[in-house]
Amino acid sequence: MKAILSCANTRHFIAFASGMMRLVQRQRVEKYRSHSQLSYIILCRRPTRGDIWLLYETGGAFCLLFLLRTVAQENLRTALQYVVVFMTTQVFALCFTAVVYRASPFHPLAKFPGPFLNKITSLKIALTVASGRRYSIIEKLHKKYGPFLRTGPNTISINLHQAVGPIYASSSAWNKSAAYSLGQLPGAGLFFIRDREAHNFRKRHYWAGAFTSNALSDNYFMLNCRTNFLLDALARRSQGLRGVVDVSTALQHWSHDVTGEFIFGDAYSKNLLRDGDRRGEVAVAIFEMEVFEVLGEVPSLFDVLWYLPLTRIFRAMDVSAERLLALRRSQASQKRNLAYYLLKGGGNSIPSLSDVDLRQETIVAVQAGTNGISTALTFALYYLTRNPKKCEILRDELQLAFPDADPDGSLDPQILGTLPYLNAVVEESLRLGAPLGSFPRVTGKGGAMIAGTYIPEGTIVGVPAWAQNVSEDNFSPSPTSFLPERWLRNEDTPDMCTRSSAMMTFSHGPFGCIGKPLAYQEMRIVISKIVLAYSFSFPVEFNTEIFEDGVRNLRATSFSMPLLLELDRLR
Ligand code: HEM
C-alpha cells in the first residue's frame, strides 16, 4: 500500500492498476476451469443484481445489529432476535408491495391479460418452462386470452405474425433480453451476445465464413460419410431386436458426430453412432440447455443459484471444448471447418478471439447444431411413418431422381434441393418438429407499436414459436396435421394458406439461426437416404399418443418415449 501511495506519477499508478486487473482477470478465468465451486465463487465473482441484493441485506442486518447493541444497549440475543424479525418483515413487505404493484392497474403492463400468478411472479413461467410443456401451455393460454398475453410481471407474448417483422426480422430488430445472460460464465458466445451491433460484428467476422455455400460444399463429403454411418448403425442396432430401432437416440448420436466434425474437423475423432454415448454427452448437452432455459426466465435468481452445484454442468462442456480446440490448433490443418474460421478471425484489423470466447463459441455450436436437427429429423420419420402414402410419394420421387443410387453413395445436394416433395416434407417436418418457446427481446427507448397496440419501453417481448407454427391464421386447413402438400403451390391446393414468413422454427433476422442452410442440407440428405434404404413402420407396442405426450421442450427437446421403428432394408 505504501509503495502505491508513494507512487508520484498518477499515470504510472493507473497503468500499474490496470495491469494488475488484467492479471487478476486472466488468473480468474484460468482458475475457474480447474477449481471447485467454492473457490470459483471466491475467485471469479462478478457483482450481479443477486450479489448486490445479498450484500445489501447482509450489510443492513449488521448495521441494525450494531445500532441495537451500541445505541439501544440491547444484549446480543435480544438484538439478534430483533434483527431476524425486522429482516423477515422487510423481505415480506417488499414481496407484498411488488405483488400488489404488479397486479395493480398502475403497472405499465396492466392492460395485458394473463393468469394472475404469471402477472405477479416470474417463478410461474419458470415452472411452466420446467414442465417441458411451455410450447403447448402458452398456445392454449393465447386461445383463452387473445394474441397479447402477459406471461410474466414484465413479459408479453404476442401471438401475431405481424409482430415477427418488427421484433426479429427488421434491420432494427430488438436486442435480446437478460434471459440470454449466462450466469457468471466468463467470455461470450454468439448466441449470448445481446447487443445487436456487437452480435453483428461477431457473426460477420468469425462465424459467417463457415456457412457460405462454398464452405458447406467442403463439408458435404463428411456429411455424406457420417450419414452412411447412420444407415449402418440403424442396421446394426436393429439386429436381435426384431428389426426395432430407437431412431431418436440414433439421430442424437448422429447429430453430435456430424456437428463435432463440422466444428473441429479431424480433431473430433469420436463416433457415438459406433461406440455409443458412454460418457453421456447427449444428456449433458441437453441438461445444460434445460438449466439455462429455466433459470433464464428469472435472471436475478440465476445470479444467486449460479453458486449451486447444479450449474457445474456448464464447466463440463468447457473442459471438452478446450481439449478439442487444443487438438485442432496442434494439427495446423487447413480444412475449412468452423474452428478454422473462428481461429482465423476476420483479418488483420480484427482482433483474434480470446481462448475463453473461442471455447464459448464452440460450445454454442455444439448446443445449437445438435438437438434442433435431431429433433426435426425424429419428427420427420415419425410423421412419414404415420402417413405411409406420403412416404410412398416421397420414395417414388427419390427413386426417379436417383434410379441407380447406392444408398451409401453420394446424393447430389443440387438435385436434392430441387425435389419438390422432398422439400415440402422437410418444411413440414421443420414446422411441426420444433416445439419451441419464444425468443425474448426487449423494447427499445420510447417503446413500440405492434399491430396498433403500444408496448412500453423495457418490456420483454416474444412471439411464441410453436403457437405461430400451428396457428390457423398462418397454416390452414388443419394446422396441426402433417400435410407436405401445403408447401406445393399447384391447382390441387388453391384453398391452402401457407404463410412461410410466420414460421418461427429458425427465428428470423440478425439473431436468427445462422446454421439454417446446413440444417436444410442435413434434413434433405438424412431423410432421402433413410427413405431410399429402408421401409419403416411402428412396432405393434408403439403408442403414438404416448410418444406425443412425452415430447418435452426446454429449448432442447427430449422424448420421454423414444421413437421406435421397425426397419426393413430395401436396397
Ligand atoms: C433443425 C435444426 C435447427 C433449428 C430448429 C435451429 C433453430 C434455431 C433458432 C430458433 C435460433 C435462434 C434462437 C434464439 O434467438 O433464441 C438458432 C440460433 C442459432 N443456431 Fe440454429 N437451429 C438448427 C440447426 C442449427 C445448426 C445445424 C447449426 C450449426 C452449427 C445452428 C447454429 C445456430 C447458431 C450458432 C445460433 C445462434 C445464432 C445467433 O445468435 O446469431 N443451428 N437456431
Second-tier CATH architecture of the largest domain: Orthogonal Bundle
Task: Assign the CATH superfamily of the largest domain.
Answer: Cytochrome P450
End-to-end gap: 79 Å
> How many domains, as an integer?
2
InterPro entries: Cyt_P450, Cyt_P450_E_grp-IV, Cyt_P450_sf, Cytochrome_P450_monoxygenase
Family: Belongs to the cytochrome P450 family.
Organism: Heliocybe sulcata
GO molecular function, one term: heme binding
List the helices and strands and how they pair.
Elements: H1 2-5, H2 10-34, H3 37-44, H4 49-70, H5 76-103, H6 116-120, H7 122-130, H8 134-145, E1 148-152, E2 155-158, H9 164-169, H10 196-207, H11 213-238, E3 244-246, H12 247-264, H13 272-275, H14 281-296, H15 299-305, H16 313-331, H17 338-344, H18 355-386, H19 388-401, H20 413-418, H21 420-432, E4 441-442, E5 448-450, E6 453-455, E7 460-462, H22 465-469, E8 475-476, E9 497-498, H23 516-533, E10 534-537, H24 544-549, E11 551-554, E12 556-559, E13 564-569
The structure holds protoporphyrin IX containing FE.
What does this structure look like?
With 571 residues, the chain is of the alpha+beta class. Strand 11 and strand 12 form a beta hairpin. It folds into two domains: 39-107; 178-569, Cytochrome P450 (Cytochrome p450), CATH 1.10.630. Helix 4 (49-70) packs across helix 5 (76-103) and helix 14 (281-296) packs across helix 16. It has helices spanning 2-5, 10-34, 37-44, 49-70, 76-103, 116-120, 122-130, 134-145, 164-169, 196-207, 213-238, 247-264, 272-275, 281-296, 299-305, 313-331, 338-344, 355-386, 388-401, 413-418, 420-432, 465-469, 516-533, 544-549, and strands at residues 148-152, 155-158, 244-246, 441-442, 448-450, 453-455, 460-462, 475-476, 497-498, 534-537, 551-554, 556-559, 564-569. It contains 24 helices and 13 strands. The structure holds protoporphyrin IX containing FE. One of its GO terms (molecular function) is heme binding.
